């Protein structure tokens, strides 16, 4: 039972990233009809937002500390972060320690701006072009963004620690009434799963219960009719592109302590996320989330020792096998809508 629960937790952890990226992909496709192969790059840019903010918090100047001396007895020169100078040593140390969660506050406007810029500067010119053209141009954009990040941050992964309060592991077994120490699971992975749940719920509530969201859903169903009512639906769809970019960016920010940011991490998630979207059903937001968690759990179980011994390499292909089976039995995916990408 403990091994089963651990694999489910591992699956929910990875499935959270799949679901968040696939949710953003589906938002863009459902509103604009654009197949955005640059969406994985937005996930990567979000992670490097966290890297940048963390480095800015640690910008320092050199001061002489009279209380410390070197081996010759001379006062020691130490680096003083500006945040510690401005807010005091304790608050400054707290800001640096919590740089990853605090990066969310900066990543939201940055990623919205990046998303709106991409949509207005590039994507809008390909609305009426074939999906193949959209794929080529957005894939090219993803490569450009990847190389820009590589130029400024280098090719090596950049470790981003979680706050000290969440660096350890939780006795999850004792928490659910099992034997103590039977299930030990990292705090931050549980935090990431909870964060994904809050973010996904927020997006659905925004679309379901706000006037803006209701207009967007109406525009997704019948864009022309909404436009005839005098509503600038294009402007709202541009904002939705920015929101989708922010969702991908926030997923990247919070994933940095789990997977050290590197310039190709967006490509690592991109193909799998598109498989998630297809399995869930093109244009279906609930389908994207459901498929993300489902495939994450299946991949987790396929990575176990017994599964690898029975079918070597199954963890590398399980998602694609499931996609083949689902599409053979349900060509529109688990929750796909009729007429989406069927013309």
Concise summary:
The chain is mainly α. 68% of the residues lie in helices and 7% in strands.
List the helices and strands and how they pair.
Elements: H1 2-32, H2 39-57, E1 60-69, E2 75-81, H3 82-87, H4 89-97, H5 99-121, H6 131-153, E3 169-171, H7 172-175, E4 184-186, H8 187-209, H9 211-221, H10 223-228, H11 233-255, H12 265-280, H13 285-302, H14 305-310, H15 314-329
Antiparallel strand pairs: 1-2, 3-4
Helix pairs in contact: 1-8, 1-11, 1-12, 1-13, 2-5, 2-6, 2-11, 2-12, 5-11, 8-9, 8-11, 9-11, 12-13, 12-15, 13-15
Give an overview of the whole structure.
It is found in: Cell membrane. It is a multi-pass membrane protein. There is one protein chain. This protein has a single domain (2-56, 99-329), classed as Orthogonal Bundle (ABC transporter involved in vitamin B12 uptake, BtuC), CATH 1.10.3470. 68% of the residues lie in helices and 7% in strands. The protein contains 15 helices and four strands. It has helices at 2-32, 39-57, 82-87, 89-97, 99-121, 131-153, 172-175, 187-209, 211-221, 223-228, 233-255, 265-280, 285-302, 305-310, 314-329, and strands spanning 60-69, 75-81, 169-171, 184-186. The strands form two sheets. Strands 1-2 form a two-stranded antiparallel sheet. Strands 3-4 form a two-stranded antiparallel ribbon. Helix 1 packs across helix 12 (265-280) and helix 8 runs antiparallel to helix 11 (233-255). The longest helix is centred in the N-terminal third of the chain and has 31 residues, at 2-32. The mean pLDDT is 85.
Shape: globular
Largest sheet: 2 strands, antiparallel
Question: Which fold name fills CATH's third level, the topology?
Answer: ABC transporter involved in vitamin B12 uptake, BtuC
CATH architecture: Orthogonal Bundle
How many individual helices?
A: 15
Order of strands in the sheet with most strands: 1-2
Beta-strand fraction estimate: 5-15%
CATH top level class name: Mainly Alpha
């Amino acid at each position: 039972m403990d091994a089963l629960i651990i694999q489910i937790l591992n699956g929910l952890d990875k499935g959270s990233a799949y679901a968040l990226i696939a949710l953003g992909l589906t938002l863009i496709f459902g509103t604009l009809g654009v197949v955005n192969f640059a969406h994985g790059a937005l996930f990567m840019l979000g992670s490097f937002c966290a890297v940048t903010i963390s480095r800015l918090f640690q910008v320092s100047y050199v001061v002489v500390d009279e209380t410390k001396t070197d081996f010759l007895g001379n006062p020691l020169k130490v680096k003083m972060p500006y945040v510690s100078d401005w807010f005091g040593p304790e608050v400054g140390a707290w800001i640096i320690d919590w740089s990853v969660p605090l990066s969310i506050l900066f990543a939201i406007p940055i990623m919205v701006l990046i998303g709106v810029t991409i949509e207005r500067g590039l994507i809008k010119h390909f609305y009426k072009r074939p999906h193949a053209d959209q794929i080529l141009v957005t894939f090219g954009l993803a490569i450009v963004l990847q190389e820009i990040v590589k130029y400024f941050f280098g090719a090596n992964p950049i470790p981003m620690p979680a706050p000290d309060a969440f660096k350890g592991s939780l006795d999850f077994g004792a928490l659910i009434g099992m034997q103590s120490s039977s299930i030990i699971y990292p705090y931050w992975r549980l935090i990431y799963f909870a964060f994904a749940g809050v973010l996904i719920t927020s997006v659905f509530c925004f679309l379901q219960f706000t006037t803006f969201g209701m207009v967007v859903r109406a525009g997704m169903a019948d864009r022309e009719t909404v436009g005839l009512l005098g509503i600038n639906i294009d402007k709202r769809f541009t904002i939705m592109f920015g929101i989708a970019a922010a969702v991908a960016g926030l997923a990247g920010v919070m994933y940095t302590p789990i997977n050290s940011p590197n310039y190709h991490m967006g490509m690592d998630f991109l193909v799998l996320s598109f498989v998630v979207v297809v399995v869930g059903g093109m244009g279906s937001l609930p389908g994207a989330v459901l498929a993300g968690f489902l495939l994450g759990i299946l991949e987790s179980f396929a990575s176990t020792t017994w599964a690898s011994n029975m079918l070597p390499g199954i963890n590398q292909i399980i998602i694609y096998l499931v996609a083949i089976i689902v599409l053979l039995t349900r060509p529109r995916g688990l929750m796909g809508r009729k007429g989406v990408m069927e013309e």
